[in-house]
Amino acid sequence: MFEKITNFLWENRFVIAVIITIIVQAISTWRETKSKLYTMMLGAKSKAKDQILSSGKDQEEWVIKMALQKLPWLARTIGEDLTRKIIQWLYRKGKDWLDGKINNSR
Q: Is 72 left (phi over 0), alpha (psi -120 to 50) or beta?
């Protein structure tokens, strides 16, 4: 039994290496993208403070527009609708982090 598993792993070592590389790259890209989106959110808050953006919806739309401009692969791979949902989710997580309660900012 152990010998069969070892043979399978050895015969498919290159496929396994490629799959592991793709997973590591996806995790790394997600962390970097999330960091950039949070930076854009802070930029929107700064613009709101300077009274350039008036409402939370304006801030969210500005972040979506900037994300699609600065991260064009988002629009190509997941689309604008999913990008919008991800940004809304990140806003809720950021608000939860700020208020110290995990309650989707309620």
A: alpha
Q: Is residue 58 within 8 Å of residue 71, measured between CB atoms?
A: no
pLDDT of residue 41: 85
Amino acid at 14: F
pLDDT at 93 over 70: yes
Rounded-to-integer distance, Cα 67 and Cα 75, Å = 9
- Stated pTM of the model: 0.61
Q: Among positive and negative, which fits the CA dihedral 105, 100, 57, 71?
A: negative
Q: Is 10 helix (H, G, I), strand (E, B) or coil?
A: helix
CA-CA distance, 96 to 92, in Å (whole number)?
6
- CA angle, residues 70, 74, 75, in degrees to nearest 5: 95
pLDDT band at 47 (very low <50, low <70, confident <90, very high): confident
What tens digit of pLDDT does each residue of 50-64 get? 777 677 778 888 888
